[in-house]
Amino acid sequence: MKYYSIAIDGPAASGKSTAGKGVSKRLNFVYLDTGSMYRAFALHMMNLNYPCDDSALATIALKSFKLDMKEDESIFLNGTNITKRIRELDVSKNVSEACKHKDVREEMVKIQQEFARSNNVVMDGRDIATVVLPNADLKIYQVATVDARAQRRYHEMLEKGDKVEYEDIVKDIERRDYIDSTRENSPLTKASDAIVLDTSNLTIEEEIDKIIELFVKKTGYKLENK
Length: 226
Ligand code: CDP
Description:
The chain is an alpha/beta fold. The chain contains nine helices and eight strands. The radius of gyration is 17 Å and the shape is globular.
């Protein structure tokens, strides 16, 4: 049986997860937010008091890393619900360091590929089109200006009741973009066959419509009900 896959990559806070969730809901596909797996691993390193940039300790930490991603999108790390915790700024600040190690990436990619073998999926991250699903049916490379991304993330965090400064969000985004795109192992880069989608001036509904339109055009997929 043929399983479909849509890969959405792009820099920090470009709206990939909101778009990914919306597209998967409309198509009735399963959605996998790979960033949350790396965020969970960063939190695991932090809980262990391991410096996130220590590659040897990251390999050791993997041995005690048990992740449970539920259907309702809640995430458990070694039995503790960390769904909200991993979105906080201190985890954001550590994640790009924690996820750059080869062993960590190999382990996560294995889980992600396994997932796509038995589901129709929408997956978002940094290396989905280039490494995880090089044969994805549709590859989107989503971009937006730093200002548009920081504004969205700032309002999202304020709505959740987090006390954050706009300038800190800008700095976090710029720093992660830099580390993510310059790291040695599977850096953030546009796959040669990915379609660039600039979402700076798109509403979330327009963005979802656009991705679905591209998917249908590319695959001939029949939508059940619009
Ligand atoms: O939502 P946001 O764009 O802020 O980040 P995310 O998608 O939750 O990803 C958090 C971090 O995980 C990124 O800054 C990357 O360092 C890392 N990541 C990665 O290396 N590879 C992926 N496939 C997904 C995320």
